[in-house]
Amino acid sequence: MRRQTLWFSLSLGFVILFALIGTTSAASSSALLTQDFDQVAVGELPEGWLPRNGDKKIFEVFEVVEDPTGARGKVLKQSPGMSGEGYLLTPPIAAHGSEVTVQFRVRIDATDGQSGNVGFYLFTEGGQWPPYTSLHLSPISDQPGRAQLSAVGTYDGALQSKVLFALDLGEFHDIALRINLDDSKYRVSVNGGEWSELLNFRSPGTSLSPFHLGLYWREDKPVIYWDEISVSE
């Protein structure tokens, strides 16, 4: 009887321990936005993803397509647009704390001579200009099949672009940002590698939540594919 009681106590203890571990893990990471495009119809955009400033040409540029290289068989395709430029914004994202992690996968199918960059931005609510952060992925002119990832930030009162990583074109890369909304600084990592130096926001603001993620397009851009976009805190 004493052994049965001991066994029951140990078993109950393990159950409580694993329950606490599970609760702690869930509490330590809360999803604010997740989009793998699996539930979005081909040819459409996710619900609530809208153009900045209401530019309807955005619907000629972005669409969900089937792609076997996507995490779930579908990705967001960005084609060279009509004349002009614009941004596709996610729904507003409200962070409760000061730190968020942004993750996404991106692939550029650029041809020789295309120099237009991929733009990934963090906007204030409503897509007000200027954005907080700007990440650019640009084909390297003297290195066919390669691109450089750079970040634009304000240093000593002036905008500066810092080159962070060199990547191969034509394949998906996992990009992650660790952002401190209070300090207006962030770090970037590619494909699970080391984190970059601490980077400054492009335009520090007083109200950094809610915010939008923004994808930039222009008529001379290459074909770009986006997948597994998420924000957590």
Radius of gyration: 21 Å
The arrangement of helices and strands along the chain is HEEEEEEEEEEEEEEE
Query: What's the level 1 CATH class?
Result: Mainly Beta
* Number of self-contained structural domains: 1
Mean pLDDT across every amino acid position: 84
How many helices? The count is: 1
- CATH architectural type: Sandwich
Find the count of extended strands (DSSP E, 2+ residues).
15
Structure classification: mainly beta
Distance between the termini: 48 Å
The shape, in one word, is: globular
Major sheet summary line: 8 strands, antiparallel
Q: What name is given to the CATH topology?
A: Jelly Rolls
Sequence stretches where pLDDT stays below 50 over 5 or more residues:
2-27
Portion in strands: 35-45%
- How much helix is in the residues? 10-25%
